[in-house]
């Protein structure tokens, strides 16, 4: 091999090494100085809590700043639309839930369909709901509640944190399954709804295990009758599931996930998924999620996309069958 060829090969190898190094640097450097993680609800709710739980770990993995931006209102539609319309550059993300992604499209005239205008990145959490009543109610079981409602036509109402929420639609499902009539009382958030059930203004409601566990553990002002998970909640092991009680259609959980605007490059989506899964699997975050009553649901972006596809017909059918409206 002559000297010229040797020098050429050496130079070529050097260029390959330099290109590899540049590629590694490009992969490590996230393209945004600041990532805005939008929570489409006011501060203090489950979505906001999850966003603030994930933000520090995500900032560390991306080596950039991550801020939580609360854009509440219109049953999460304002914040969801904001991210849907954002540039697909990985700098604006949504911590959405089933209300904003798969339910509201059946109830509201939306300018942007979240399913088409957002890209699923990773599922974050999934928690069952609890059917509960004010402690002054005589009903101590679901069957007793059904009998009490049937015995007092027009008396009973149920609270929710807003039209279109899973809590609202579970109340509509309860009416269908029990063949009873109840009036829906929507509130601006689950917190006010819970407080009015506690005070006795409204007798019945559904709430996530996350939000209600502390109220059930002390004071005796409300009583849990059943949960909507496929199995009993570890946080409420003595409370039966609706499925156990013969309500097979009542296997429902409130789920949450990270979304990016549609057309976000696949490489960015894959990186966000990889880094977020690492955050979700970290000891501190995974323990916090378990304490909130969530299952471990972190997986690939494609798995999350497939899950959403299965959710769409369930909620569309429930809205049609129940006749649920925006109150």
TrEMBL record:
Alphabetized SUPFAM superfamilies for the sequence: Periplasmic binding protein-like II (SSF53850)
InterPro entries registered for this protein in UniProt: BUG, Bug_dom1
Gene3D superfamilies named among the record's database cross-references: Bordetella uptake gene, domain 1, Periplasmic binding protein-like II
Signal peptide: 1-26
Keywords assigned by UniProt, alphabetized: Signal
Family in the record: Belongs to the UPF0065 (bug) family.
Pfam families found in the cross-reference section: TctC
Protein name: Tripartite tricarboxylate transporter substrate binding protein
